[in-house]
Input
Amino acid sequence: MRAAIALAVGLCLAQIAYGFVEISPKYGPKSLGRMGSRVVGGTPASASQSPFQASLNAEGWFGWSHICGGSLVGKRSVITAAHCCDGYTAAKLRILYDGLDRTTLKTTNPVTKVDQHTSYNSQTIDWDYCVLTLTNDIVQSTTVKTIELVTTAPPHGSPAHLTGWGKTSGSTSTLPTALQYTPMSIVSREECNKIWEPAGQTVTARMICASNQKASGCN
Output
């Protein structure tokens, strides 16, 4: 399975093989610096739409909690956003997957290594990649699949998919328990920069733009 998938691991910049920058048809570009997690206007996902979806959990004062999404890749790896790994050691992170409700995911896999991209820039959100090495192999099944990363930017107009447990509106602080899904359409970097550059931002070769007339990964 080869695809450009935009997971809601960040607000306007989710990571799979490239960064993900959203263009809102109504409001124009969304700020690269507003890092949250939203799937606004989505619908509950089905198992076939997201068998690669993972939940990144971190241990804090009040126990373990969901902080970001990620994608199952390879034999024992998850790719997520670098900003999701900031300040965490492997011992404080774990990956959960196999299911749609983030409170009842069937498999828990501890993290043994955190590889945040050395060129990650928290100001420009460039190189926003982090690879997590897991303790145990990912056992694939009808509900658990790894995803093959793209090696070239998808053409303008190609389909993309946004999935995640992000907030469903900008006015709520509550995360849904059901995984959310919405289709999107790839926008070329050239067209995307025509919108972003006047706002003082540059869409780099590590980013992919996408748009949806009725749904959003931003608030």
